[in-house]
Write a structure and sequence with these properties.
Blueprint (H helix, E strand, L loop, with lengths): L8 H17 L3 H8 L1 H38 L6 H18 L2 H13 L6
Helix pairs in contact: 1-3, 2-3, 4-5
Length: about 120
Amino acid sequence: MEHWRNLSLFKKFIFGMLAIIGVLLLPELIFFMQVGGIELIFGFMVMYIQSMRTWLEIKRQSFKRIINTIYTSLLSTTAFKPRTFYLQSTFCVIAFVVTGSISLSMVFFMPGMLLNNLSV
């Protein structure tokens, strides 16, 4: 790495702004700035970025697994099985005709149809 004195004014400005942003996000870097200077700050910022990247990767994999679980459970619900779907839909229509309430027929019959395999 080039020495600080040999850097152009633009590079010094960029490194300074990165250091300020790092100090704003990670206040413990102020102490490291006092002790070791800008090189130490950038070293610790790289360490923080690596651990944050690992954490984000774990969260992304978890989110992907949840989405796949939701997708699989929706595909295996009775809503996608024609025989059961027609029976449940008939019950919903009968409940609507008898009560005259869409919300009543949907609240009582549709969750059982959509979430049938999750409740077992």
